[in-house]
């Protein structure tokens, strides 16, 4: 199976988790795309649900498929959110934000009872950090934030977007941070949050409850976080 087919398989598998009248969170990216498409198909066949989106892009896609979209502020607990990831470790700690939607994704994840990650096997790692960690920052001070991150044992920090900086849905910039292997993700997350100007990090810790991993041999692996 190639990458696209694996993403499609994981996304479509997750769409089966959605039950009538659920309030769900819909993720962002090329794997979540297939979840949204499959959900749209079920809505077309009469499934009634309501959804909160993790990005403008996903909101637009869902709306085009007649999936009713609500604002995060207008809902209480989200029953189930399905989202992609850039890296998934065996404890279901994640790096997210490759598509720049990490802030809204983390807010939606934190408001969700279940966060199910859809990914292909290439996203599975023993230790987080090969994928550069996205950090969302306030544009007015990004150079100072970059300097502080470089002092934290980080070999390279790149402002995303060239020549124009990439601007997130919430009007911020993204710094892609090359830490290499992250030994203590929890401590790193806390340290990054202590830098003035950091809005959010792409480290999703203790949030994912389950991962649906599509394998190249055509199988689906389900990993559940031990609580
Ligand atoms: O900001 C984007 C998100 O965190 C995505 O869910 C993540 O980058 C994975 O995207 P994809 O499924 O396209 O690899």
Automatic annotation (TrEMBL):
Catalytic residues of the enzyme: 105 (proton acceptor)
Keyword Isomerase among UniProt keywords: yes
Function: Catalyzes the reversible conversion of ribose-5-phosphate to ribulose 5-phosphate.
A GO-annotated cellular component: cytosol
Record flagged with keyword tRNA processing: no
Reactions catalysed: aldehydo-D-ribose 5-phosphate = D-ribulose 5-phosphate
Keywords: Isomerase
NCBIfam families the UniProt entry points to: PRK00702.1, rpiA
Pathway(s) where this gene product acts: Carbohydrate degradation; pentose phosphate pathway; D-ribose 5-phosphate from D-ribulose 5-phosphate (non-oxidative stage): step 1/1
PANTHER family: RIBOSE-5-PHOSPHATE ISOMERASE (PTHR11934:SF0)
EC number: 5.3.1.6
Binding partners and assembly: Homodimer.
Listed name of the protein: Ribose-5-phosphate isomerase A
Family: Belongs to the ribose 5-phosphate isomerase family.
MF terms (GO), sorted A to Z: ribose-5-phosphate isomerase activity
Residues the entry annotates as binding substrate: 28-31, 83-86, 96-99, 123
GO biological process, one term: pentose-phosphate shunt, non-oxidative branch
């Amino acid at each position: 199976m190639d990458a696209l087919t694996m993403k499609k398989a994981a996304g479509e598998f997750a769409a089966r988790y959605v039950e009538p009248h659920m309030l769900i969170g819909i993720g962002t990216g090329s794997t979540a795309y297939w979840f949204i498409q499959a959900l749209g198909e079920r809505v077309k066949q009469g499934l009634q649900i309501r959804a909160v989106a993790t990005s403008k892009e996903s909101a637009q896609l869902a709306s085009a498929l007649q999936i009713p979209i609500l604002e995060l502020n207008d809902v209480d607990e989200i029953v189930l959110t399905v989202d992609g990831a850039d890296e998934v470790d065996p404890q279901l700690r994640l790096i997210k934000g490759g598509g720049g939607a990490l802030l809204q994704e983390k807010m939606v994840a934190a408001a969700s009872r279940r966060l199910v990650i859809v990914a292909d096997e290439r996203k599975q790692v023993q230790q987080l950090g090969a994928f550069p960690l996205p950090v969302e920052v306030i544009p007015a001070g990004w150079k100072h934030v970059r300097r502080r991150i470089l002092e934290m044992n980080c070999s390279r920090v790149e402002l995303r977007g060239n020549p124009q900086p990439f601007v997130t849905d919430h009007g911020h910039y993204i710094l892609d941070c090359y830490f290499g292997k992250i030994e203590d993700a929890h401590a790193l997350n806390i340290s990054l949050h202590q830098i003035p100007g950091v809005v959010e990090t792409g480290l999703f810790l203790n949030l994912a409850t389950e991962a649906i991993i599509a394998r190249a041999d055509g199988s689906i692996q389900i990993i559940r976080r031990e609580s």
